[in-house]
Amino acid sequence: MRAFIERKPLEPTQQPPLTCIIMSKGTVVLAYSGGLDTSCILVWLKEEGYDVITYLANIGQVEDFDAAKKKAESLGAKKVFIEDLRAEFVEEFIWPSVQASAIYEDRYLLGTSVARPCIARRQIQIARQEGAQYVSHGATGKGNDQIRFELTCYALYPEIIAPWRIPEFYNRFVGRKDLMEYAEKNGIPVPVTPKAPWSMDANLMHISYESGILENPKSHAPAGLYLMTKSPEDAPNSPDVLEIEFKKGVPIKVTHVKEGKSKDTPLDIFSYLNEMGGRHGVGRIDIVENRFIGMKSRGIYETPGGTILYHAHLDIETFTMDREVRRIKQGLGVKFAEMLYNGFWYSPECEFVRHCIDKSQERVEGKVQLSVFKGQVYILGRESPKSLYNEDLVSMDVQGDYDPCDASGFIKINAVRFVSFISYFWYVTARLE
């Protein structure tokens, strides 16, 4: 911290007074949630001599934004930005993930991962707009979010303050108990108490739950944990049948078949699918995953709308896409999911992969009918003007243009390959013995 001394005219017998004027270290735009960590970080940054602008992104979480703004102002924020990013979150981040069939380690639909580049991008735009020298976040030093925020910052605006990796901060706040004591001492109101035994992150795509009692991988999730979905046991006893229309791999309309209700804007489509999926308990998973920083973690997720779209898109894609193109696209989808999980959204390689996946979706067009019922998604049928399915060709009752001799040649070629593989297998086994 810097200071300078202001000198005033003196009387002959007067001792020289010293007036210290504290100079700010600069302005920080803090990604703020209003929770325990970021509220404490806001006050700590001010203690350290920074001017703090707080930024809260509305990406579909249930939040009292007016209360969050008042809280930030009461804690000394210079300015407070509350930005509604829901529409761009769906169109620019969730939709590319749907096109990619992005799923991490076969189960996780990446709801937290896909939100971070959306949040961080707007944070950096505000930093530039306000002439701030730094951006900051409250992600812990053991989680993935620190990587996701900071790789975005390094790509777009590389001056970062990461409190959970600053020794003065993490040595002072060893655990949540220290944060709670600091909050109490500094008059910081927080909704979480030591009796609330897990942390939660919510957005339009999903809600995630981790830490606390959930860190024991054997512990069952408490019944009252889930907020976005009903228990399948309590779900309606009759299914809801939906029709989802796709164009270039992106949903453009959803219709409730029985009620005739339809939605045709991205935000409305996704919100309605969340409503339908949540009503039937769709999209709950409890997993142990591999974090990018080198540890396994237990996470519980509920992703109702995303789960419905994953199944529907997968169905229309296989119906309309060439087999060999899809084989390559599947590999790109796995790579994209890994890059998204690890925070590389703004990397050149991720941009290239997204471009390739987008190209693969040009023919992915049509309608899928499905039912949601008791925690499950059931595909009922599909149609497309760009279908590669030939009913006459595949029919067992119609000869069509199919020549059985073609199958004979195919069988012979693959039989030779199979025999060669078996011979090689026995050769290797014999050598090993």
Largest sheet report:
5 strands, parallel
How are the strands of the biggest sheet laid out side by side?
5-4-3-6-7
State Rg: 27 Å
Number of helical segments? Answer: 13
Tell me the overall shape. globular
Query: Percent of residues in helical segments?
Result: 40-55%
What structural class do the secondary elements suggest?
Answer: alpha/beta
Please write the string of helix (H) and strand (E) elements: EEEHEHEHHEHEHHEEEEEHEEHHHEEHH
**Strand coverage percent:** 15-25%
| Overall pLDDT | 89
Number of beta strands: 16
- Low-confidence region ranges: 1-21
What's the helix and strand layout?
Blueprint: E1 3-6, E2 19-22, E3 26-31, H1 36-47, E4 50-58, H2 65-74, E5 79-84, H3 86-100, H4 111-130, E6 134-136, H5 145-156, E7 160-161, H6 167-170, H7 176-185, E8 199-202, E9 207-210, E10 240-247, E11 250-256, E12 262-263, H8 266-279, E13 284-290, E14 296-302, H9 304-320, H10 323-342, H11 348-360, E15 366-373, E16 376-383, H12 391-394, H13 404-432
Parallel strand pairs: 3-4, 3-6, 4-5, 6-7
Antiparallel strand pairs: 1-2, 8-9, 9-14, 10-11, 10-15, 11-12, 13-14, 15-16
